[in-house]
Amino acid sequence: LSCPLPAVPLNAGVSVSGTEPGALATYTCDPGYTLFGSDSLTCGGNGKWAGTPAVCATNVAYKKPVNQSSTSRGGKGENANDGLTTTIHDNKHCTETLVEASPWWAVDLLRPYQVAVVRITTRGCCDQEPLQNIEVRVGDSTNIQRNPLCTWFPGTIEEGVTKDLTCARPLSGRHVFIQMVGTEGSLSLCEVQVFSTQEFSRERCTDKSQLSSLTIFNQTCYELQTTEGGDFERGRAYCQERGGDLAHTTSLATHRFLTSELDRRKEDMKTNLVWIGAQKEPQFVSRTWRWVDGTVVEDPLWGREQPNNYNGQQNCAVLDGGRGWRWNDVGCDLNYLLWICQFSPRSCGSPDRKENTTIMGTERGMGSEVIYKCPEGHLVLGLPSRSCLSSGVWSGEAPTCKYVDCGQPAELEHGNRVLTDSRTTHGARVVYECEGNYTLQGEHTLTCSDDGNWTPSPVPQCLFSWCPEIESPSNGEVEISGRRSGDTATFTCLPGHYLQGAKTLTCALGGQWSAEAPNCVFVECGQPETLRHGEITLVNGTTHLGSVAKYECDPDFQLVGNTQRSCLDDGHWSDPSPQCALIECGEPSVPEGGYVTGYSFEVHSEVMYHCEPGHYLVGEQVRLCTRDARWSGHSPNCVYVDCNRVPVLSRGKVIYHNESTHLGSVLEYTCSSNFRLDGEKLRECKRDGKWSGEAARCVEVRCEEPEKPDLSKISITGNDRRVTTTIANRREHVALDNTYRVGSHVTYKCDRGYVVEGLASRVCLINGTWSGLSPKCSYVDCGLPEAINPGTFRLLSNTTHYGSQVSYECGENWKIEGRIRRYCQSNGTWVGEPPKCTEVLCPELTSDLTEWLEVDEGDRRVGTEAVYRCEVGRELVGKTERECRTHGIWSGFQPRCEIVSCSLPDEIPNGRVVRLNESLEYSAVVEYHCLPKFVLRGPFHRSCQANGTWSGITPHCQVDEGAGILTDNTVDGTVNSARGGGGGGDGTAATEPGYTGLWAGLGVGLVGAALVALVCVLLRARQRQGGKETETNSSVAGGVGDKSVSHPASEIISYSNLSDPTTGNNIYENIVEDDEYADMSTGHTYSNPDDNHHDNYYNNYNNHASQPTYTNGEVLTIGGGEEPMVTAGVNKPPAHIMRRPRLPPPQPPVVPSLPATSPSSVVTINGVTLASNGT
């Protein structure tokens, strides 16, 4: 058999390896919860999971108010629920009571919780007896014995262990008590945790705050901000950032909880004023206070003389530690106060689920919903969905699954049935269809419903008008009135048989009887189920139809159900099987002023009646639950008695325990300092209304001289005649005639090497004796301490007895780990473990390396040198080596790696250098380009190397010896012929051999020169009219534009070719037009007045040669003359182009096409300037 899906408790998850026998279901709890029970279950061969079901619970006692029977040696009660699980007391970490009878410790959970487990951590050695006979009680009473017993551990609990004390059954209560019963001793607890499933863990509150600052009460998260200060709005903004607000709408119980938390933190708080979320309405005359959520504060807990609303400016509320944490109204702008945040949990955690159920939906936040599903064929019993409420809990209860099987659906005569889902379990469907000549009467489709039946009923029929013959059943008879529609057939069975089916059948329209013919069957019910704690008697000794079974219970049990059952004709016993339940008497009546103890109401159980303080019992105190389910006897009564107060006590006072004087109350006489009580200390109010005994009186008390042990001296302080009395030497049995007041202290000190065995201090008690027994001095020797290697030790006093000290040192380049000094303890051992010597190593350097830096650090011992190096392309800045020095510190500082940079590459004459990506760093690349008519000799590009130099050698530009004068006189690679025309139509006339083209060009040039001269005369006349002394050269280029740029007059030379004759690429093709390089030389202007017009290009060049000449500002001799021509502006890019090669130069100017009548180019030949139209 396979197992169903296992059940999962609240706040837990499960991992299932399978559902076959041997499979495991492993449970884990949500963060902040502890798992109790089995963390895994095993699928058994019987189809059930084996093991104790797991429970995930959280600690609800953390930092709640505590109390204990007494306190000793710094063992405060709150040490047991401060969250520290240490087993060392050290007078501050654990609780400790005085040595007394049945000491106890208690925690107030501030509201009832269902407690499952109480976990205690016991104190480790020493000087403390182990715990024994521990009793845990949980309930709502502050009186220990009035609370139900959770569990009792009769044995001894080991020292320094954590022990889980599990309740026999979960108990609900507000108070949890832990008590050592039936013994006298001291109760010491280092930590107590109370686990419940009815609260969520702090981990669900917020992820933006420290877990230690969060606390939970009544399913609400609180954060006590006790370190950071601010005004009211600052505190509120802080809380809202974490999804909450300042603490608001707090109940009285919540107020008590928060104030107890503040009391715990009071010593660490810089102020005792703490913001809460309450403000007064802004109107000056209003006295209404509202919480920050807008609701009215109904019962504000104002402190004394509050609220005073000084000057109408105190409109915010705080908890005032100086007024017992009651409310105080202050100004909202005080910027140093603390605050308390309140917010709902972020999620509801993991929902629980019953066996064989699954959950759809993974969200667990506020408002999320989970859907429960059952396996196919099962019915969901309960609400199928649950929502995460704002309180952090899931709505409703987890549903269960019920297996439902409707069985095979009825056959349809003269028809067919089809199971559409191929099953007969819950939700399955069956579809009916009739054969030919028959009509279906009823529903076509039936569904397997929740109650295990096919619905809707009845099953449909295929009707025909004539019914078939019908035969008598075996062991029975049939009487037929006919076989036509409306006729009937009535069936009867022989005695002892059961008619299985309808007794009467009717012939219905459609040719069928109203039901199948019944059968007469012999009925057998079988043996009835066994009766636990009882017996079954078969009256007639049979189990067939009509048999009767009689049920009776054992003594102390009563029958729940029918006393008899009959075998019915359906083969089942009538009514449910009864059960024998243990007799219970119910809850007994409780008299006014009394209460009842005893929590079992079963037969033979006893309850005991008690009266409240001030009452005495009249009647029987014990009543017994009898077998007739009634309590024996009658309920007793409680009578009230009051003894009133007694006269005052001279030199003392009377203390009324519990501030009462009624029956059972106790008064206590106490005397002032230096007085002792003469008479009974306690008196009790008796039933006759009088106090027991006689009144006591106070007389002065003094202690005799204490005895002095050998090898010691004693010091007595607190005497009324001297401040301190020291007795160093005194013969035995010789006493001084001194007495000492109550409260005087005697301190014992032993000679060197001896230790006090017993109490080192005694006090003069109220009974005139010194507390405890006189100690003695015992010699203690610890022997030589353990040696360390490599190292030495030195006895500081050259002794090894009690109090001696030893000092340890390690060798050079070794450091000591552990105690440097140890001392001889009273138990004859040196305190702690001897230290160890570990070799000094410098810290690793590889973890702090910067980018590109590498290091070889060696073995990191003292004296070792670490060597740094950089990756290729980087250079080291700083020292290459660092030494590991004494104390494990590296010398100097870590160097860094900087990328290698090369200097600016050399410029080349008649060319330019292009820096790719504007970089001079390692791996940067520069390219070299020559001006037209020059050829690059050397590498085309060079790269920056790791040593900071450029690869290869600097190339140079050499004049191309094969370049002719007019063979490539182009702009951007085009022949300087008129656009749209040319000598032979192919643009090649200028390059053909012979002089025909030359003379033709000369003729055209002369004509052009005449036209230019005419234009110049007209322009000069125009300038004179306008008073301007400048002229344009628009006619030189032959283009007309909307705008023109004026330049000083200059002579005209031919256009120069700015393209590489080998590649056709312009060397400035990457410089944008609007850049600083648009004006590359004197006389160049680019103008683009409108996007729809051609660019106009103006050039002023020195006309000294018959073809372009490229120099670097040198003096050239042309045509036999010696006139300098500076052409660096044309032939050599400016210096800034060499510095910023990435910025592209402007596109070369476009020479507009001119009409055939206008010259398309200007050519200078042997000093004569000609205009050519392409011929």
Task: Give a written overview of the molecule.
By secondary structure, this protein is mainly β. The chain folds into twelve domains: 12-54 and 349-403, Complement Module, domain 1 (Ribbon), CATH 2.10.70.10; 61-198, Jelly Rolls (Sandwich), CATH 2.60.120; 211-343, Mannose-Binding Protein A, Chain A (Roll), CATH 3.10.100; 464-522, Complement Module, domain 1, CATH 2.10.70; 534-582, Complement Module, domain 1 (Ribbon); 594-640, Complement Module, domain 1 (Ribbon), CATH 2.10.70; 652-691, no CATH class; 702-779, Complement Module, domain 1, CATH 2.10.70; and more. Helices cover 6% and strands 34% of the residues. Strands 3, 6, 7, 9, 10, 11, 12 and 14 form an eight-stranded antiparallel sheet that branches. A hairpin with a 2-residue loop joins strand 79 (970-971) and strand 80 (974-975). 28% of the residues are buried. Mean pLDDT is 79; it is low at 731-736, 965-1000 and 1022-1175. Pfam families: F5_F8_type_C_2, Lectin_C, Sushi.
